[in-house]
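Running this now, will post back.
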Amino acid sequence: MIATEQKQDGTAARVTGPPWPDPAGLRRRMGAIVRDPLFAFLIVGGGFFAAYHAIEASRKEPVHYSREIQAAQVEEFEMLAGRKASEADKARMRDNFIADELLFREAIARGMHLTDSQTRKHLTDKVRYLIAGAPPEPTEEQLVDYYSDNLKRYQAEPKISFSQVFYSAAPADPAAVLAALNAGQRVGGDDFWLGRDYPQYGESMVRGIFGQPFVERLRKAPDGAWFGPVRSPRGWHFVRKDRSFAPSLMPYAQIRDQVRQDFMMAATNSVVDREVAKLKEKFDVRIDR
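Update: finished.
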C-alpha cells in the first residue's frame, strides 16, 4: 500500500511504501528456480497428473438416458401393456435403465466378463455370430453330399434286447437265484419302475438307466444266459441278453433336418476357424506342456 504524507499547506511531502523490485534480480531469482531439479520434477509430475485425469475422465463416459432411448422404451411399454405410459411408468423405466447401465459398468469394472464362465460363453457366442453371421441355406445337393461324406456320423448306435430281475438290496443267496433263473424258474425279485423286458434299447438309453458298468457287462455276455448280479446305482440286477443289434445307417430322408443342422454348423465353424487363425497373429498364445 502506498501512503502519501501531506504538509500543513496541503502539498505532498513524500511517498512511502514497498520499493519496486529490481528487474535484474528478479530474473536471477527466476533463473535459479527454473534450474532447480525440484521445479522440473513438479512440472513433469503435474503433466502426468493432468494427463491421468484427462484419460480417466474420457473413460468414465456418463450414463446417457437419451430421448431416443426414452421414446423406444415408452413405445415398447405401450405395445406390451396396451395403454399409455404414465409419468410413474416413465420414471420407473428411467430408473431401471440407469440402474442396469450402472450395474453393467460395475460388472465390467470387477472383471466379471473375464472370470464368469456364463458371461464369457455369451460373449464368445456373440462374437462367433458377428464373424460368421447366418450361413446361406444349403441346396439339396449340398446336403446329400455332406451326408455321403459323413456316413459314420449317421450310424445308429448299437442296440440290445435284454431282460432283468431286480433286487433293491443284495440278495441273500445270489448263486441260488442265478441257478433258478438259468433253470427256467420264475423268480420274483423286487418291482422296478421300467419292468423286466427291454426290447432293442440303444446303449445310450441303457447307460442312462443302469450306468456304464452295466452296459459293459451286457456287451460281453453271451446271448440267452442269465448272469449277475450286476450292481447299479439303483440296486442289484440279474440279466439275460436276448439279442444284439449292430449299428445301422440311418436313412437320409429320416434325418435330413439333422444333416442340415450339421452342414450349417460346419460352415459356421469353417469361417470362425479362419478368423481365429488371424487372431493368433494379433494375440500371444502360450501353451504349457
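Strands lie at 3-6, 12-16, 155-156, 159-167, 197-202, 226-232, 235-245, 248-249. More later if anyone needs it.
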